[in-house]
Amino acid sequence: MTDSRRRYRRERHLFSRRAFLAGGASLIAAPAAPLIGQPRQTPRFAGPPFSLGVASGDPTADGVMLWTRLAPVPLEGGGMPDEAVEVQWTVAADEHMTRVVQRGTSIALPDRGHAVHVEVRGLEPDRWYWYRFRTGSEASRVGRTRTLPAAGSPAGQLRMAFASCQHYEMGYFTAYRHMAAEDLDVVFHLGDYIYEYDGRDGRARKHPGDEIELLRDYRNRHALYKLDPDLQEAHARFPFIVTWDDHEVDNNYADGASEEEGFASELFLRRRAEAYQAYFEHMPLRPGSTPVGPQMQLYRQFEYGDLASFFVLDTRQYRTDQPCGDQQGAACAGVSDPAATLLGDTQEQWLFNGLDRSPSRWNVLPQQVMMARIDLAPGADEMISMDQWSGYDAARRRLMEFLASRRPANPIVLTGDIHTNWVNDLRVDYAGEGSPVVGTEFVGTSITSGGDGSDVRANTAGILAENASVRFFNNQRGYVRCVVTPERWTSDYRVLEYVTHQGSPISTRASFVVENGRPGAHTARMQGKAVALPNPLSRSELDANPRERAAGRPG
Predict the structure, then answer these.
(1) What are the C-alpha distances in Å from 471 to residues 372, 393, 410, 454?
(2) What residues have CB less than 8 Å from 286, skipping those under 6 apart?
(3) Residue pair 283/220 in contact by the 8 Å Cβ criterion
(4) Do the Cβ atoms of 415 and 367 come closer than 8 Å?
(5) pTM of the prediction?
(6) What does the angle CA 445 – CA 503 – CA 542 come to, to the nearest 5 degrees?
(7) What's the pLDDT tens digit per position in 51-87?
(8) What is the tens place of the pLDDT at every residue in 110-144?
(9) Domains of the chain in sequence order
(10) Widest CA span of the chain, in angstroms?
């Protein structure tokens, strides 16, 4: 960190401390205040109230969460009056919203940023639905969502994608335009949905203002990202299952420890509480994830029929501080400390118990930071990243030893964070090649973070030569598309040529396959042909998709 950056952060921290003392510490422990008075049924707005779009998420076999937020002036705190507002919602079996299956009313509360979370239940499993919100005379766009197959029921195929790291300043979210044209059942977002940094000149786009630390600022930053039309399109097309990493709060934070050394924990927890509230307000999360001060339940499990169990992890909220600092370097003694943890004891035991009981063909861990131990230095020296599982090697080994001894079926780890594409064999011991492979890690690159990128970096050959367990490494932007069947898992690495201006084509840079019962990935395809950027799909184009056409029939 530069001296000027340190001075800037100290000044911001002094400002934050004054705001914290002025506002009190009530947010650390207090839930939202109860509703007082009658909600307004015919509100008047200063602009379009559904400017941030619609989204769905956390699907189950019989339901899904629906989301929107009333924000007629989205970048100025939302622009809503300090009163509750009625919002009507409708779910239908067709895109024209004529075959209504459920409808109801929700209340948008000012102390929750006028966000709307609707928990819909009683739907049929494994089918598409459409939804819309209304308030007063205003209506949202129509969104589309899908329920999961019933737990344990035969499921022949899952089509999904995962993405992470969408730094607004570093480029355009063109990847989401391409993703919206895919035939997917669900999307996983693995963190860094926003970035907390101050605005910088000379980049593709610019954050307004300073580094964010207060609730209003986090709300405005989420709104800025949600205004992106390509991100809105992807959310309206597919249900999302989300987890966070660090930038939703503060770079490289760990539990109550800020990135800034010596920053008071009680002050940082206030910042974390406000960041967590804004995150919940902008994500299609279930009521069980409602934050209480600086605590928020985010790790959770999803069952996709008998095909796959997903154990979504949280490696930020419960981790101990990085044992050897939060940068890259040689391993210190703290790396092997058995008390050093990314998951915390409760989440780790939850994961082990869930994997032990799982009857699914594939057991999947969507999570944030690289799990494979990667040596970033050539020759006899070793250099590892302390913010990843490599910096918490005792915790990493416990998980790998569990996979080796208990042998849950076909472990697959999905990872974000690092802004590059990787395919890694997972092993207990990386010191010798004789250690058996116990699982496969697919690491997806960023949506924009890191800028345009390139197919290779200067150290690509060295990374591959130094790490026999790395099957693939690439430095382009994009996302990973996965097709899962009972017999194989296929991951397609979808990459863009550029992100610093709009309109990049996309191609499949490589495809890797894991066969049922055979740990480790093998190459299925290298270097595809780029295709032109699609326009947003029209409703008539939705009709042309046979899977969607079949799902739209009454059942």
Answers:
(1) 12, 21, 18, 18
(2) 58, 65, 117, 119
(3) no
(4) yes
(5) 0.91
(6) 90
(7) 999 999 999 999 999 999 999 999 999 999 999 999 9
(8) 999 999 999 999 999 999 999 999 999 999 999 99
(9) 55-143 (2.60.40.380), 150-248+299-551 (3.60.21.70)
(10) 70
